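Let us practice reading a record.
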Amino acid sequence: MIGSLAGVLTFKSPPHLLLEVAGVGYELEAPMSTFYELPAVGQRTQLLTHLVIREDAHILFGFATLEERALFRNLLKVSGVGPRIALAILSGMTAPAFVHCVRTQSAAALTRIPGVGRKIAERLIIEMRDRIEPADSMPGAGAGALAPRSDAEAEAYSALVALGYKPVEATQLLKAAAGGAHDAAITGAGGSGGSTEELIRRALQGAVRG
C-alpha cells in the first residue's frame, strides 16, 4: 500500500494532479481542500495517499492532511458512497464542517454538495455518527479548530478556505465576525447579521483591517 508520496508537482487541474517521484510520475486525484494547499507547479510537495482498486483501474487519491484522508476512508465505508462522492464531500466542505453537519444532523447542508441527495445525506448522518472522533480529540481541536454553531458559520468557513485562507486563519476571522454580528444584532444594526453573506463580509473586512 502506498501511504504517501513526496516529489515535484508537475501538473495540477482539479481534481487531477501529477507528482514526479524519483523519475516516476504518479497520477492522483485530490479534493479541493487539498488543492488549496498545493504549491505552484515545479515545486516540491508531499501528500498522504489512498489507493482504490477497481476491476478496470487503480486510482490513487492524495490528501494534504491526516484528517482529510481519515474522513475519506470513513466515507467509503458508508453504504452508497464511493470515491467520487467522498471526493465531492471533501471538495464541498472542510472536514470540521462535515463533522458539524453530522453532529447537528444537518442533511440540508449536505445536500448542497453535488451528487449528495437527501437519502445519501441521511445515510451519512446515521452511519458516520459513530465514526467521527469526539470534538476534543480531533486534530487541531486545541488550537482553535472551528466548531460552527450554525449552517451559516459552516458555509462561511468553507467559503473563506475556498478563498485561500488557512483553516486557523478562517477560524479566527469567523470568531471575530460572529462577535461583530452578535453586537450588531444587539444594537439593531446590520440587519441579518448572522447570515452566511454577512459573516463572510465581516470576516473579509476584519482581514483587511488586520
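A brief commentary: The beta strands are 4-13, 16-21, 24-29, 44-53, 58-63.
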